[in-house]
Amino acid sequence: MRNLLSRRLTTLAALLLLMFAGGQLHAQNMQEPVPEGSTPVNTDDPYESWNRKVFSFNDAIDRWFLRPVAQAYRTVTPTIVDRGITNFFNNLTEIRNFSNSLLQLKGESAVVAAGRFTYNTVFGLGGIFDVATAFDLPERPEDFGQTLGYWGVGSGPYLVMPLLGPATPRYFTGMATDGFLLPSAWDEVSSPEWYYLRALQVVDKRADLIPAESFISGDRYTFVRNAFLQRREFLINDGKITQDPFADDDDFMLDDF
Question: CA-to-CA distance for 65 and 206, rounded, in angstroms?
């Protein structure tokens, strides 16, 4: 029990690092607008002064520590190996996708998640190869933050947290629930291998995001904020696209797309 609790706490810490790296670079997803009639994206930023200071702190940690490690990993790791590592970790999230699909009463998505995990684990050598996509079973990401949104829980104000990066109260609650309460394939990994794999996951994720840095333009803080909020609404609304609420935002730069 004590070992499981320790690993759960480390899960949370690893997720914080992953969310920090991922949130800083979600700008590449900005071409995915949110659907008409959905809950409006709250771009009001009541804590902007605090958020900008924490954003600078996070950015400094990434610039001086996480990014150099990820760049070195990217340099020495062959592309096919890097892709296999990414596929392996993505495959583990299918259990999360399955659980949250059930909680959102999305039977088809639950079947897809179960099918992807089975195909990739059995025929993809533990998830190293994404054979499920070749079988016309593309990933349908679902997390508990999306589950809360499905049942009408508002996102709350935009926040930037130390190490966590871009977040909202709904997003943070969802992350904590996924990490602590819902079933996870990580519970079956023994120590100390569990810690090594978590560290590898963080570095691999950050390395995969390095090419996306070229998408960031204009004021970095504003760009990342808008990208994060839009991406979350896009996921919650299952990708139903009608219009882009940020198209007329003078602070947001779409020239690169």
Answer: 11
- The span from the CA of 44 to the CA of 222, in Å, is 11
Is-contact 203 69, C-beta < 8 A?
Answer: yes
Q: Tens of pLDDT along 157-191?
A: 999 999 889 999 999 999 999 988 888 888 777 77
Rounded to whole angstroms, how far apart are CA atoms 246 and 41?
Answer: 9
- Tens of pLDDT, residue by residue over 35-46, are 444 445 545 689
Confidence of residue 104 (pLDDT cuts 50, 70, 90): very high
**18 vs 15, 103, 164, 205, CA distance in Å?**
5, 24, 8, 7
> Comparing C-alpha atoms, which of 165, 140, 167 is closest to residue 156?
167
Span 9-15, average pLDDT? 51
Q: Which of 45, 84, 56 is nearest to 204 (CA)?
A: 84
Predicted TM-score (pTM) of the model is: 0.76
Among 88, 90, 86, 92, smallest CA distance to 124 is for 88
CB 142 within 8 A of CB 104: yes
